[in-house]
Amino acid sequence: MEMKKKATIVDVAKEAGVSVATVSRVVNGNYPVKPETRERVQSAINALQYVPNVQARELNTRHSSTIGVVVPGLYNMFFAEVIDGIEKSMRRQGYSLLLNCAQNDPELEMECINALVSRSVSGIIVISPNTEGLREEFYRRIVKRVPLVFINGYHRIPNVSYVANDEALGTRQALEYLTGLGHKHILFVRGENSDSYTVKERAYRAFMAEQGLFNEKDIVDIGEGNNIDTVTSARIKLMKVMPELAPTAVFCCNDLMATGAIRACKRLGLRVPQDVSVVGFDNITLSKLVDPQITTMDQNMFQLGSNAAAVLVEMIHGGQSKRITLENILITRESTGPCKTEA
Amino acid sequence: MEMKKKATIVDVAKEAGVSVATVSRVVNGNYPVKPETRERVQSAINALQYVPNVQARELNTRHSSTIGVVVPGLYNMFFAEVIDGIEKSMRRQGYSLLLNCAQNDPELEMECINALVSRSVSGIIVISPNTEGLREEFYRRIVKRVPLVFINGYHRIPNVSYVANDEALGTRQALEYLTGLGHKHILFVRGENSDSYTVKERAYRAFMAEQGLFNEKDIVDIGEGNNIDTVTSARIKLMKVMPELAPTAVFCCNDLMATGAIRACKRLGLRVPQDVSVVGFDNITLSKLVDPQITTMDQNMFQLGSNAAAVLVEMIHGGQSKRITLENILITRESTGPCKTEA
DNA sequence: CTGTTAGCGCCTTCAA
DNA sequence: TTGAAGGCGCTAACAG
């Protein structure tokens, strides 16, 4: 269908009988303009419904007011909530947000970022980045061109800012809570392709080793950890391994997996928490909607997002990179209880 | 911190010893270039890490490759899943996606759209728009400047495209299913501020009236229907009205509300589905993760999104506006069963 | 096949 | 206080 051709600054200038420079001045309000000419320009603007062309402006000021956000996907509410935090605080500052879903595919993640760079966004936030291997070199290069903030990224790269929960500490706290309940055999459930899992696994290994409770077999990887099938794949995997392993508790790297764990228990005829305790991570809204409600480490996603936004804006204005670490809080709900054999 | 100045097409041309036109040609691959010069240009590009400036390109081709998406919020997974559908198919076509959350606030919704227009996005998709009252005039004006697609929008505006599920039909089907199970007293649970609810309510009224089963009191509005508190507010509201109304079934306008309904039943000591049946709408992943799993009308959010994307692209290329209606499928799960008094 | 050149719409010195 | 003019980085005729 026919679109009305948009009026340009030239049209407005002609209409008002002034130069384009003058129009530019009243639009941006950055230089003095005589009140009456200003008024003349204003009415020309209204008459033509003139809307400045952002591309042109940004082309010649060489900076854009949009930022890029890259997430693995939207299926895990974790990301949706973080984005919400970013969006709300960015909007307040006048930035718009270009969203890219990398589908947990490292290749695609890089593509997305390249696309963002070529759109000359003025900054990029990557949630749960994939920074292993080659990617490090890639990010080192990117950060030379545009400010970068990682949310829950662990691989340190110079000049990148980090906003994260202390997931290692959070893991330890959860584990301490579980051992405090008398549990000695605790499964560790993780996914693939995210530094978060690795950090948590490391914390798990350390803690369990300290307690003399570590067993390699207790670490189970369910594959993709953030998509529409995660709950199911966690359930299936756990139904396979739990009968043999017979743990009294299960620590899951996120609430989706925890949900799967609970379903696995139900199908296996195990009661939660009487027969086995389950703890999750994130505290997405889902975690209090399933039955039993999940005991989980809260990541306060909204704060994660708004902090990242704040740091990014600082960097855009020339600030140094920095690291912000938030602390997790354990939300005790119904999925955990004292170890049976102790009771 | 210092950002490395980006190489421009001129730098590449100089480096490769060719003209900018040639560089442009190899970058865009739209005109023949001798293989060896192409190669020379390529290596110059790599050497300088040249990334084309999208703003500049779009400025002179006069069309942008980004589209805008406006949603009420991300807390209801419904929106996240629709966005996923949009994103995936838009990416394939080379478009990026500017995301705005209007927080179910009609004013903010208009602001978002204005911002999008001034960024000269080449099209806008609005999910569950708020089109009552003044807003109609607003949208009529917008659609003169940029192609517009509404997902699940019901207020007809000329030249706007619509992609929707037949929510009225879906409602009727769900209701027929319930009456088929012997239910005669069915509550209708809705939220505020969205045309979807109104459409469903109309279908409910019509159907129940036909059956001689309608009662004004059976319509309950729980307020905001898509945010983080929806489950809770639905639960609270229903715990208040259910004891008096004593329905044998509850129809909810979305799965969040259905989840709230189930929780309300539990707290009231009513078993689902033995004492009361609950049906939801949308079929978000949550609906099969709660206990009991929710019987719900599937909206196939992914298709909603990808269809909207397809239509928008058509319109961008000059196509006429159109309406696409998808049909819902009832997903029967555990939250519904035969009416007790019939059994 | 390749180079030259004229803009795209806007901002910003520099003069007036 | 205002206007003229030179780009920003790139594409697309138009010549060669």
From TrEMBL, chains A, B:
Q: Which SUPFAM superfamilies match?
A: lambda repressor-like DNA-binding domains, Periplasmic binding protein-like I
Q: Where is the HTH lacI-type domain?
A: 7-61
SMART domains registered for this protein in UniProt? HTH_LACI
Gene Ontology terms, MF aspect: DNA-binding transcription factor activity; transcription cis-regulatory region binding
Going by the UniProt record, its keywords in alphabetical order are: DNA-binding, Transcription, Transcription regulation
What Gene3D superfamilies would the database entry show?
3.40.50.2300, lambda repressor-like DNA-binding domains
User: Can you tell which superkingdom this protein's organism belongs to?
Assistant: Bacteria
Residue ranges annotated as transmembrane are none
- One Pfam assignment: Peripla_BP_3
- This protein is called Catabolite control protein
Q: What species is this protein from?
A: Mitsuokella jalaludinii
Q: Which gene encodes it?
A: ccpA_2
